[in-house]
Design a protein that fits this description.
- With 278 residues, the chain is of the alpha+beta class.
- The protein has two domains: 4-87, Orthogonal Bundle (434 Repressor (Amino-terminal Domain)), CATH 1.10.260; 104-267, Beta-Lactamase, CATH 3.30.450.
- It is built from twelve helices and six strands.
- It has helices at 4-16, 37-44, 48-55, 64-73, 78-87, 104-112, 132-138, 146-152, 162-182, 187-199, 201-209, 256-267; strands at 118-121, 127-130, 158-159, 217-224, 228-239, 244-250.
- The chain has a six-stranded antiparallel beta sheet with strand order 2-1-6-5-4-3.
- The radius of gyration is 20 Å and the shape is globular.
């Protein structure tokens, strides 16, 4: 049976999001102010054909991951996100699962910080949203979980010492253990921890130590292929009431790093080399 209610809701929400608000160029010869289906597909990380089939009611059982991605791309409120899950025939995530909803205020904050590299992670360090300068700084990648990247495929742009790597890994594991205590019913979180314990002896060792904490800040040097080395402060801020993490990179004013970061903002994402973010 065609799910026309889901398709109607998606079209309505798509029509009210401007491309500028979603960080996309407006282009020309647009018949409507809202997002095109291709643009929604790009933001949600799914195919345009699948968006069409959802809107036409020919795709009736989207996964929870697809629904979550659509909710983020459409900048839905918490109540609208819950409604979207129910239209898709899914139970909204419960209180024992890691929150992945991005409030509209966080979207607006990223819109206003276009000169600062910013990424949004959930409490399990799954990357949910980044701005273009963060992508230009850190590169694009396929594994969007920050803990797994650090243990299994670290970013070659970040200049590490053995001491700084050990400290970062210990902080991330302690933070993940804290998250596991807060969200004991999240199956994706349990699978992530099991996968890391199986494939990383270092993670397993740190996990067995039982440390609990919160990863908050660091100072990193990023060797960028186009603008050279940038030594930046990396601060992790928690969004009250949602447990989202905002990772913000900033340079001390008047330094070479500040000049290079400004240059990177001009270059944009034209020179991405396909490395993984961190």
């Amino acid at each position: 049976m065609a799910n026309t209610a889901l398709g109607t809701a998606l079209r309505h929400w798509r029509d009210r999001v401007s491309p500028q608000a979603a960080g996309l160029p407006a282009g020309s010869r647009r018949r409507a102010a809202g997002l095109r289906r291709e643009e929604l597909a790009q933001l949600a990380g799914i195919s345009a054909d699948y968006v069409i089939r959802l809107e036409q009611g020919r795709a009736t059982s989207p996964s929870a991951q697809v629904v979550e991605a659509l909710a983020r791309a459409l900048r839905l409120t918490r109540d609208e996100r819950t409604h979207l899950f129910r239209l898709a025939g899914l139970a909204p995530p419960g209180p024992g699962t890691v929150p992945r909803h991005i409030p509209p205020g966080v979207h607006r904050m990223l819109d206003r910080l276009d000169g600062t590299p910013v990424a949004v992670f959930d409490a399990a360090w799954n990357q949910l949203l980044v701005n273009s300068l963060y992508t230009a700084l850190m590169g694009e990648g396929h594994d969007l979980n920050g803990v797994r990247r650090n243990f299994l495929s670290p970013n070659t742009r970040v200049r590490d010492t053995p001491e700084s790597r050990d400290a970062l890994q210990a902080a991330l594991v302690a933070d993940l253990r804290r998250t596991a205590g807060h969200y004991p019913d999240d199956p994706e979180l349990r699978a992530l921890i099991a996968d890391l314990r199986r494939h990383s002896p270092r993670f397993a060792e740190l996990w067995e130590s039982g440390a609990v904490g919160q990863h908050e800040s660091a100072r990193k040097t990023i060797d960028h292929p186009d603008v050279g080395p940038l030594t930046l402060d990396c601060d992790v801020l928690t969004v009250a009431g949602s447990d989202l993490r905002l990772m913000v990179y900033s340079a001390e004013p008047g330094t070479d790093a500040a000049d290079r970061l400004a240059l990177l903002g001009v270059i944009g994402t034209q020179s991405l080399v396909g490395e993984q973010p961190r």
